[in-house]
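FW: tagging you since you asked about this chain on Friday. Here's the raw sequence from the shared folder, copied in full. Didn't touch anything.
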Amino acid sequence: MKRILIAGLVVALLVCAAPAVAAELLAGQHIYVGDVNAVLDGNVLHVTYDTVDNWAMTESHLAVGKVVGDTCDGIPVTKKGNPIPGQFPYGSPYNPPATSDTIDVDVSSLCSVTGTWTFTYQYGGDYEHTMILDLVEPNGHVGGHGYYNPDPAIYLWVLNGTLSGDGYIKFLIEYTKANKGYTVTARGKINDCESMSGVALGTGQPGATWSATRISGGGLCIAAHAAVVHIAGGCQDLFSDSSTMVVDSYAGGQVPPRAIKNQPTYPFAAVAAWVHPSWNPSLNHPFSSSADWIWESYRVQYPVEGDVVDFEKDFTIPGLYFLDKSGSIYLTCDNGYQLFLNGNSIGSAQVSGDWRNSALTQAFVDTTNWQSVENFDLASSIQMGDNTLRFETANEYMGPADGQAVGTVDSNPGGLIYEAEICYDVVDQEETGWGAGTGFPGANWATWFAFDDNPAD
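HL: got it, structure written out here
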């Protein structure tokens, strides 16, 4: 067999099995959030969404049409020409948000001969002529041009053809060789979106056949929509320190209206408390060095009557809504406490009954077990935006009513110590995204891209 191949044909054949195109996925019209890649495999178009930089999809909507002139035909649009993603035939919701997805679309009904092809015809079993053809398909007709240039011969090809509704194609190929004109009629079938084949007549050779394999193009247009979100995450460490505020305090045994202590106006910053020598060695949990024993004053103000001191610690989680959240706290108090987060009761230790309005005696405030550090889960009460941890604490009554010696600032100190970690993944931005390309006729910025805008090479 005599083979005549033009330079560069091998490269073309390597890529023709999988023509591909890529478009940027743009959110809010100008924010690059990823890419949309389309690969044609026979009659199946594989469209892959990939996001970057902490962007992810909550929904995808995909429609594939056919390029007609300067428009993308077959995409659901309003009367004004704006696309309607909710009516696109392909796509999916994602919960949790997805960073990648591939959607397969059968495009056999949309196959077009428009594009660049490697066209080969054989005859007599001895000759094979191969050329590159650029074809267009306007209104059921086929036109184009190609070249075959093995020196010294020069073939110039002009094609005129028609398409039938059942996928058959007919070419009338006129070419010039050595200043002489020739005509070949090629009839055949569009096998799939990547290949055509048939018989060649008028070559002067019996049994002449032809085949064509797509290099690029396809006449397809893609409307790739996605609802995208930006995901932010982080952790916050919270400690008992001067950022914790004292919001109320009073001596034990008082009932409303209570006498106001000799304190600054509430709220005010908690201070590092006098640390009793037994406190840290007795604890069953090692606290970070960032966590201090705190109180309303360095020394307790009512070592006999005891004190009720309320603390609050505020923290903020920025964003629109949670994807995930977690939180825990370790704490103890000499002598007892109740813990709240955003008004929700989290836990307590060493206090019982109506202790806030009591004399803070043993019946209401246990003088033992403060050495046991409690751990509570905070996740269910964490909220978007502003959050408040509230610690309602008590230092016991110490005196004859409980069978004890009269308390002093050394024998009956008060202190709270805690450390907490709050972690979260949140959505902090929501946008609409489209595969970048040509705008639809409507007023919004939605876009489509042609399959042959950026062929693989």
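FW: The CA atoms of residues 203 and 332 lie 97 Å apart.
HL: agreed, and The first helix runs from residue 9 to 16.
FW: great, closing this out.
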